[in-house]
Amino acid sequence: MYIxxxxxxxxxxxxxxxxxxxxxxxxxxxxxxxxNHNLLYPALRxxxxxxxxxxxxxxxxxxxxQYVYEITDVGRAKIAELINAxxxxxxxHEIEFMIRVSLFDRISRDNRLRILDMRKKDLESxxxxxxxxxxxxxxxxxxxxxxxxxxISRVVGEIRWIDELIRKTMSDE
Length: 173
Hints:
The radius of gyration is 20 Å and the shape is elongated. A hairpin with a 2-residue loop joins strand 2 and strand 3 (about 65-70). Strands 1-3-2 form a 3-stranded antiparallel β-sheet. The chain is about 70% helix and about 10% strand. The protein is mainly α.
């Protein structure tokens, strides 16, 4: 799941406390998502129990103590595992895909191509379904047709972008 990946990457960059992790993720991807405490803190507890991160108590004078999280070798291995673990189900979710693309410098050329191919196939299937729906829609459904046309335009644009990423990946040897 992408939230796990984002949390671990923030801790890998430098040790952070929970609020810093949340703010950094939102700074980087706030337009795509919001990180709430119900996602963040259970993940931090789980990573601590798995040994992916360690938690150190940071005493502060006149303020409550806070915990700072640091990545471990297990956590670094988990990041690599999560980046490469991209399924057909993940290919249906834009944010899962976009986060993997943003991390392409960390994965092999073959895995990049695999991820791009999976997303492209999903988009081509989606496009076929939308076009079929548009052909069957009634002409007087003006706003429905506008939404379908906008969706087609976005999907076609993403397919073109993926084709360009495939081209760049193939020439990047």
